[in-house]
Amino acid sequence: MTAAAQVPPAARAARGPVRRHQWLATLRTVIRTPRGAVGLALALSVTVLAAIGPAVAPQSPTALLTVPFAKPSGQFPLGSDFLGRDVLSRVLAGGWVLLLMAAAATALGIIVGATAGISAAYLRGWSDSLIMRTVDVILAFPQLVFALLLVSVIGPKLWLIVLAVGLSHAPQVARVLRSATLEISERDYVKAVELQGMRPTKVMRTEILPNLISPLMVETGLRLTYSIVIMAGLAFLGFGQQPPAANWGSMINENRIGLTLNPWAVIVPALLIALLTIGTNTFTDAVARVTIGVDRQPEEVALLDDLGLQEVK
Amino acid sequence: MSVATASVRRGPSRAVAHPIRTLVIRRAALGIVTLLLVSVVVFLATEVLPGNAAFAVLGRSANPARLHSLERQLHLNRGLLDQYWTWLSGLFSGRLGDSLANGQPVWSLVEPRLVNSAVLVFLAGAIGTVIGVVLGAVAALRKDGWFDHVSSVAALAVTSLPEFVIAITLVIVFATNVWHLLPAVSLLPPGTYAWSQPKLLILPVATLVIVIVPYLFRMMRGAMIEALESDYVEMARLKGVPEWRVVFTHALPSAMAPTIQVIGLNFLYLAGGVVVVEYVFNYPGIGQGLVFAVGNRDIPVVQFIVLVLAAFYVLMNILTDVIALLASPRRRIPREP
């Protein structure tokens, strides 16, 4: 039989609900902090705008309706873009794909990175070396450059961008979770189930993972912010959604030649991206303060833990 | 240094080499292995992924004859290991191949861009480091004062922003809509050097400085607060050492060690940041070169620039780690067994 069955039922029952509610309780605490409230409000309002935008856009986002770079008017409240399309409609339509792609890349990065980091720390030995050397190699590529490398061969496909950005998140996630796991795997309750003969995969899943909720929450928030930044950056460079699709990143690039004629075609998408990323990052910062209780970003702490400089053997 | 040497001499770990030398050598060796693996990744990504490079370049206009001749030009008809070796030895002997977009040698296309980007990164790195360290130290000294609060919130906001949003904001404020002080984009043709028109450097450098300052600020602030609350600072104060000496000779040096490592991390942001920032300002550096090469599917140029950016980061990381090792007294002393 597995070890979990040998734990007295009462003990399991007592432990279960506490664990299940831990992250919800954390979120509740976070929302009550000023940073948490502001961050959530910003991120949520931009998300809602992006989600319902396509349904409420007054015009077609791709129809050529007036002269290029027309000033704001009653019919076109934010003016027109470089081809004479309605800026308001393009703004409303241009966020949801960006957000979906960022969310998908974040999920991929967290799943791959957490699996790699927890395995490296718990299994030690050659798996650890192999995983951490791989991490070092991928980490040498700036995330945007890693995505560009793949795009140069396969082309600006949306699935490829999600894959590239997700995979380039994984090393940083792996580092943070590895150093968190190293400490947890030394605890007595882990040693206890190991002595009972629990399989390593099960130890990682049932004993270690539930204790990593805090770093996981912080990492998810950080990676979501970076995903949005990189996705918007790729679109800005022309390697995201292809024309004529509306996208906040590409709108900024398309319309910046007309900055003096109709600045709103640049300012509004830039402002929405800024509010969104400031929102997610501020919320993440509040989560980090509540759970880890530090001012520093965990990534920097993990970096220092990880360089092998602390331990002189 | 003498403390470390002495303890090695009398300690039981006599046979062990000097710890700091071992660490430095280990760090450098690890970096070189990483670099080699990075080159393998770049090579595999561009040669092995579905639809090989020749097909990617020719696209729909590929016909068997053209495909075949381009495959031969890129050595795609040979074995994988053979291709990798040809490519790698070419890198070291300066034979980087020709651009697929215009047939020029890759090196002659990339060299002036490399110099321009180096100027940009060096200026931004130096200015950003000074500003970040000073602001971080000041915020730590006035912990929980108004300056600390304002700058911490500002740092948080700025780290959230994409580089191109910062760049566009600077363009709107300083080059087009609000004031018209600086050129919005550079009109330098590729192949020229940036210092011929220093005014063009201002906005790109300013953008990159804004990108990296918050990271340095946060690290310096954290390290400085830790140092100021440490026992040795307490001791110095109790001895009656003047406050300015406590700050400059006791707290600041020990706060610098972790900060130096974050400087290394910052080169990663800079290496990624130059791509977007150079593109925004039409600055003729390798970042802009990379964007153009990706657009043209100019694989030899992409390979080389990506490798340069990755190598730059790896080398900078080795360098900053070694400096941090040398700068931190505690880590130099071998632990008693």
Task: Explain briefly what this protein structure is.
With 313 residues, chain A is an all-alpha fold. Chain A has helices at residues 3-6, 9-32, 34-56, 87-93, 96-123, 125-139, 143-154, 158-184, 188-195, 200-208, 213-237, 248-255, 264-291, 298-306.
Describe the structure.
The complex is a heterodimer of chains A (313) and B (337). Helix content of chain A is 73%, strand content 0%. With 313 residues, chain A is mostly helical. Chain A is elongated. Chain B is mainly α and 337 residues long. Chain B contains 14 helices and no strands. In chain B, helix 10 packs across helix 11 (243-280), helix 11 (243-280) runs parallel beside helix 12 and helix 12 (286-296) packs antiparallel against helix 13. Chain B is flat. Classes of the chains: A mainly alpha (313), B mainly alpha (337). Chains A and B meet through helix 6, helix 7, helix 11, helix 12 and helix 13 of A and helix 2, helix 7, helix 8, helix 9 and helix 11 of B.
Instruction: Please state the overall shape of chain B, judged from the principal axes of the Cα atoms.
Output: flat
Number of strands of chain B: 0
Task: Report the total helices of chain A.
Answer: 14
Sheet with the most strands, sense and barrel status of chain A: none
**What percent of the residues of chain B sit in helical stretches (DSSP H or I)?**
over 70%
Q: Work out the strand percent of chain A.
A: under 5%
Shape of chain A: elongated
Order of helical and strand elements of chain A: HHHHHHHHHHHHHH
